[in-house]
Design goal:
There is one protein chain. By secondary structure, the protein is of the alpha+beta class. The protein is built from nine helices and 19 strands. The strands form four sheets. Strands 10-11-12-9-3-13 form a six-stranded mixed β-sheet, with helices on both faces. The protein is globular, with a radius of gyration of 20 Å.
Amino acid sequence: MTLSAVLRNEGAVFRPGPAELPLHFGDWHAEYAAWETSACVFDPGRRTQIEVLGPDRAAFVHRLCTNQVLGRQPGSGCEAFFLDAKGHVLAFVRIFVGAESLWLETAPGQSEAIVGHLAKYVVREQVEFCDRSHLWHPLRVAGRGAQDLLERLLGGKPPDRPLEHARGRFEGLEVAIACLRSASRPCWQLAVPQELAGQLWSSLRRAGAMPCGWLAAEAVRIEYGEPEYGVDITAENLPQEVGRNASAISATKGCYLGQEVVARIDSRGHVNRRLVGLVLSTDQVPDVPAELVADGQFAGRITSAAFSPGLGATVGLGYVRRQYWEPGCRLECPLGPVEVAALPLRP
């Protein structure tokens, strides 16, 4: 049975649009609560997944991205930006290092742009780019009880450091499993061939994972401060504006495309805007992007927003100008007052 059919049998209410993502399964507040008390499984949609092959793969990707790729061992990973020559962000990816290839994973619909960008810089390197987005489908298992659930299924400990990954097997399924987050709200991504995604969902449900939809997952993503390319990051952004310096930008590696701009910003000491957390004084969710103002002047823009049952208010991610980005600063949006807050929004 296809994943879509399995989700419909579970009572999923789907989000409008071409990507069939379940909004919820009847009670999204209970789904949100499962992140705090147990384990949940949700469908992040068909993510962009590009496999990079060839003996020069690590050196090639290394010289085009902001993070250290050379020297990483199989089973490890990192975040990174791909930039243009002017330092603007063309992609924000997770890089998973395998024994025979690298995998680039990011938001849906980015394959053509990323492969096109990388292919322009191939000269004599032995490297090949394969779009695997239509072949593999990921599901995510998250929440305080997620590790115990996965240990029972796998018969051992899953990868437990951010972006560590391995292969596992349970109930006849071979699964690629990666730790995306290991803090108070841990999250793992499990990928199987597209035609087996429904079987994987059913296995996780039998093991005790609660079905979770996009409404709950989006609230948690925003609370945790995880930006998504195409939503919170675009080609208008410089990498330091995104606030992922520690996890996605190496301060010690050598030259890479856009590195001069990154170094110039570092030497200047700041950017003029930065991604921050936002807490609105309402339970209504604004249409995004939404403008932020202070004393009648443009102050920034909300890029993502969702209602947070945990905070009892709408929360958001957005870019604000330097004079407004300190936590506690008060701004206005079309729905009323907004307070700038440090990320993550919920410790």
